[in-house]
Amino acid sequence: MAAGVATWLPFAxxxxxxxxxxxxxxxxxxxxxxxxxxxxxxxxxxxGLRFQTWKNTLDRYPDTLLGSSEKEFFxxxxxxxxxFDRDPEMFRxxxxxxxxxxxxxxxHECIQAFDEELAxxxxxxxxxxxxxxxxxxxxxxxxxxxxxxxxxxxxxxxAPLPPDSxxxxxxxxxxxxxxxxxxxxxxxxxxxxxxxxxxxxxxxxTVPCRPIKGTVKDxxxxxxxxxAFFCMDTACVLIFTFEYLMRLFAAPxxxxxxxxxxxxxxxxxxxxxxxxLVMPENEDVSGAxxxxxxxxxxxxxxxxxxxxxxxxxxxxxxxxxxxxxxxLFSLTMAIIIFATVMFYAEKGTKGTSFTSIPAAFWYTIVxxxxxxxxxxxxxxxxxxxxGSICSLSGVLVIALPVxxxxxxxxxxxxxxQRADKMRAQQKVRLxxxxxxxxxxxxxxxxxxxxxxxQDRDSDSTALxxxxxxxxxHQHHHLLHCLEKTTNHExxxxxxxxxxxxxxxxxxxxxxxxxxxxxxxxxxxxxPRRAKRRAIRLANSxxxxxxxxxxxxxxxxxxxxxxxxxxxxxxLNARTEDLKLNCDDRDFTAAIISIPTPPANTPDESxxxxxxxxxxxxxxxxxxxxHEAVKISSL
Amino acid sequence: xxxxxxxxxxxxxKFVQSLRRLVFGTLSxxxxxxxxxxxxxxHRPEGLDQMxxxxxxxKRELQVLYxxxxxxxxxxxxxxxxxxxxYAQFFPHGDASTYAHYLFNAFDSAKNGSIKFExxxxxxxxxxxxxxxxKLEWTFNLYDINKDGYISREEMTEIVRAIYDMMGxxxxxxxxxxxxxxxxxxxxxxxxxxxxxxxxxxxFIIACQxxxxxxxxxxxxxxxx
Lengths: 634, 225
What we know:
The complex is a heterodimer of chains A (634) and B (225). Chain A has 634 residues and is mainly α. Chain A contains 24 helices and eight strands. Chain A has a four-stranded mixed sheet. Chain A has a two-stranded antiparallel sheet with strand order 5-6. In chain A, a hairpin with a 2-residue loop joins strand 1 and strand 2. In chain A, helix 5 crosses helix 17, helix 6 packs across helix 9 and helix 13 packs across helix 17. The longest helix of chain A is centred in the C-terminal third of the chain and has 48 residues. Chain A starts with a helix and ends in a 41-residue tail after the last strand. The radius of gyration of chain B is 25 Å and the shape is extended. Classes of the chains: A mainly alpha (634), B mainly alpha (225). The interface between A and B is large, with 35 and 43 residues.
């Protein structure tokens, strides 16, 4: 029930006195209203802007935040008001809803911000008043379309394929997104070239060439150089057939592919050739065969794979189908009307060209589209009058649906442009996200390095540790807890990949031998780094001293230069257990585990089960700075 | 014949008008603005003090009542359509329009088709804070549709039918036979002392005061506000 009706309820209840004389039984007891009847003014402070309203106003909608007891959570005892840390401008609309019962959508606000406010205050958007509902819906649909485009662009073909994709999948990708690989690009351009060649050949072979010596008649070039043209045609058709078969093979859903428009165009483009091959040189049949050759011109439609503009045009026409249909229908009506009128108007004239109504169709069409060939002209005055009316109305009828089509085209074109821009920005965005992620991952490892994990009270705690925000402290504490839980530690990509490599080289701990059996492709990982010592890895114990971390850092700094072999013996005591999955340098990330007793029996330490450690992907960072590349579990 | 001529003349005039509009277009200045000058009737109630004197409500109560009323009807009056609509929302099961009509007439003391705030408050004052006699008088007024001082059987049947209409079709137990008629018969049995087919105000009041059930029920409606 509308809130306003609640105002009338006491009235209706009072009027129930009118039923009493008729009632045979006693009336039931009225409900006892425990809460105080007196109306009070509530103060609502939204980011500093103070609103005041009657309590009754808010109580009108008990299933919203302000109408229910949920608002008590926001009550500030000291200032005796309800404080909300939200946008005061938006709140104005929310409060007006309570006051008037109608929710309005402010046109200048972002639709998402508005939706969020509504969700916060527990108001369903469906109750937006009629005055603003249309605008709201339009904006919401636009926004959703844009989000959908974003998602599509995001998962769009530019993302690298999973490494375990089959040949089919890779082939399909190459066909759909030619710019992903060089081969695909080459193929794309080659097919484009051959389409052009085929079309030009089709056109040129009808041009009259100089006649062969001895004859007088001009021959079309196609007949003069019939062999050459035939060879060219064959080559093109071979390429097209090959392309079509490859696409068919690679398509994830062959049925769907065969039904798609492009596939139909492909088939229609190459069919005439094959039909011509099997066709006998029969006089009767070759007449039909000649018409088939017309279909060769469909090859030009194959260009739509190469041109986005063509695709947009095609899509526009498809989406404007109803307008085009209407145009056609109205034109047909007008043509029939005017043709009839012209025929009867010109019936009397001798030698008139308006021999029948269908014959008059031609005149009507030519006049309505303002072509005016002049092959059929009315002679009578009536015919001329009607002819002029016909041409004037033709202009009108054709002009009407055109703006709709144009606006559709413009909308689709802009959408496409936006999608392209989005794709370009996507790369930048992703790079920025990666950088931010790296920042956080670096922070934790830097924190550890700075000894933040040590006892805070000690004076030796570095200043840089103290200067971190409380949020960071808590965050790092959380990561630390995770380390303790899993008995593993965070480390960075480089150290991990190096461990992986030194393990493959045959690190002297007995660990390595047991590990090497699990390593499968470990020999493939970073063979070039075999020279580098993986001593850096050894120091990532929790209770690492600053000194060893420094050693770690210095080693990092010296990364590029081949370092002198350091004594491995000192590091034997600490053994690592690594998750080795590094067949690709780019994605190393690991949690180095430290068995709790730094014993010499690495075999008894945690088994290298794949499930234990979280393998994270992390892009390689090129910056081998003091902080190096560190990994976090985020 | 003269009627024909005038009709013809009107027709010709209209035709000429439409032709004129066709030829010259309708880009003339909007003359329909005059029509849009709708009569916005706004009614303001008399002063708070006066109202406090004439009704049994306190100032605060009147304030609360008026705020709600004004919020619902910014123009200050309720017309019958709105009233029926509101009542229909309270009784969605059946058809409350007939009863709302009678109720409207009971409140509309000035009989001008709209309820002002004063009528609203007067009615409420009687119903909630009035004496028993006042309440019964009000109820009698409600039943007496033509306000002639007598409740006839037809009037009562109308009222009872209207009330039963509000119940709707789906009741338990299902209504068998002409239940309103039976109800009216029972009512007249009780009320019509001298069996003359109509109930006067005095008969009504006496009969009701004899009815203990009703007297008890009357007390229950005191705390609606």
